[in-house]
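Comment thread on ticket #2218

A.B. wrote:
> Attaching the input chain for the structure job we discussed in standup.
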Amino acid sequence: MISEENFLGNEKKVGYLNRILDKRLISHAYLFEGPEHIGKTTLALRFAAEILGDSFENVLNNPDLIFVSASEDEKQIGVETIRDLQKNLSLYPYKAKYKIALIEKAELMNRTAANSLLKTLEEPGQTSILILVSSDSGKLLDTIKSRCQILNFGVAPEAALEKFLSRQNENISLKDIEDILELSQGKAGIAVNMLKDSEFLRKTKEEKNEILNFFNIKNFKKLENAALVYQMEKEEVIDTLDLWIWTLRVELLKSFNEQNEAEILHMRKMKNAIEKITSVKEDISDRNVNVRLAIENLCLGF
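C.D. wrote:
> Ran it. Output below, let me know if you need it in another format.
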């Protein structure tokens, strides 16, 4: 059985998977979709381990599990990777009743790879199971999604996350809990990292303050801050832009009750900034844009 306590906000999904395991009513394909850092891949691996009769700690070494994920160098999952997966999946299981293919970041499959995978979904083998994990399932072919059982995952409720953090560390201060709840965006994975790594929490708080001060600093300082972002790996850039959007939204909500002219102008600036950051994030995620140029233009545009 998979424990529900490590998947805050998604306990019902864990319960559903446990019922499937208990009744052995396992489908040939699943799609785990939802935001980053909420435990989708971890849960998919635990689900696979239960099906294969293996431990979570050892499942990545199990010969009946085929784990696929795009490397930082590749930036996408190509057709040769999917063909290798299909060849492996067509073989009879070594030890278990099934062979499982788990594709992390499935949205990174290029069009040829996705169409190739579709053939496997249309004609599934009796001993094969596919588990797709995606934080942007809108990029997946509708024909792929229609052939999967879809489990939608969400962020953790604030009250549940607060209780979880207090259980993990009884000595944590109320101020740290408040900061983690605000900065983690409801994502339990980020919250746990902040709880374990005080330096990560400190840097994230600094970044939040820098974001809120961004409108008032000079352009050369903005370019310095931009350099800190575009030098990151692509996934870190996207995570940083997510934090910018989240921070400004929280600040925007705090300002809704204020009606003076200065506050209304400030709210408009934040709203425009959120729209610009969201647009740049989508460009970086979906298109082959120059990340440095995109971030510099974004920062100078505030």
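A.B. wrote:
> Thanks. Noting for the ticket: The chain has a mean pLDDT of 86.
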